[in-house]
Design brief:
Helix content is 48%, strand content 7%. The chain has helices at 8-18, 44-54, 63-69, 84-94, 101-117, and strands at residues 23-24, 33-34, 78-79, 82-83. Helix 3 runs antiparallel to helix 4 and helix 4 runs antiparallel to helix 5 (101-117).
Length: 118
Amino acid sequence: MLDRSTTQAQANLIHQTFGIPVTVYSFDGSAPIKSNGTAGHRSLSEIAREIRADWTKVYFGAVPYLDALSTLDQITDRYYEDDAEDVVRYFLANATTWKGDTARRIKAELKEILKGAN
C-alpha cells in the first residue's frame, strides 16, 4: 500500500513498470482504487495480515476465521464448504473485543466488501 500522497498516475506507473499491483486509498482510508483504475478492495489475505499485525491477542473465537481469511483473496472465494462472505461475517461476529482505530477502519472495510458482494 502506498501512502496517501501517491496519485493514481504514480500507482499506474508502478504497476506498468514493475508489474506490481498497487492500491491507492483516499485521504480517509476508504474507497480503494486498484492500479488499473478500477474500484476494488484489498485481498482478504492482505487484510488478515494487517489484522494479525495490530491485534496481538486475538480472541480464540476469531482465530479460525482469521486463519481462513489468510487463505482467501476475493469475497467470491470459498474456504472448504464456506463462502468467503460467511467467513468474513463470522470473523466480524467474533472480533468485537478488537478495539482501536485500526480495528474500526478494517471492520468498516470488511463490511463494505460484504455490501459489494450482495
